[in-house]
Amino acid sequence: MLKTILVALDDSELADKVIHTLQQLVLEKDSKVILCHVFSPSESEMELPADRPQPESLTFSYFHIEKQLQSYQTLLPVESNIELVTGNPPEEIIRLANIYKADLIIIGSRGLTGMNRIVQGSVSSQVVEDANCSVLVVK
């Protein structure tokens, strides 16, 4: 039985496919879904002191993602939480899955191949390799 499901979403069209896949699962009433998004820190953002105003683009992006995840929450028939974190995406997804003791992680795959996959890395591949629970990859 899937009691806790961590759903890792980005801000691409793939997020809609991931949510659609989640909706196809038969969930128990006491199941819980955690919708998460991991913001990757860029070099310039890491250098900003915490007590200084943050660029408007960061604030807009955060609220845009939060609203998107809240809209996905309304589509779910079970209890859900939202987690917005900053860090290395595969590490943070696995960390959240461990914190919530997830039975399943659902994540999208952009389908990168060849040099793009080597240069940009594959979040889904690393999550599949390192997770302590089952992982459903949505293409």
UniProtKB/TrEMBL annotation:
InterPro entries found in the cross-reference section: Rossmann-like_a/b/a_fold, Universal_stress_UspA, UspA
Pfam family, one: Usp
Domain UspA positions: 1-139
Origin superkingdom: Bacteria
Family affiliation: Belongs to the universal stress protein A family.
Name used for this protein in its record: Universal stress protein
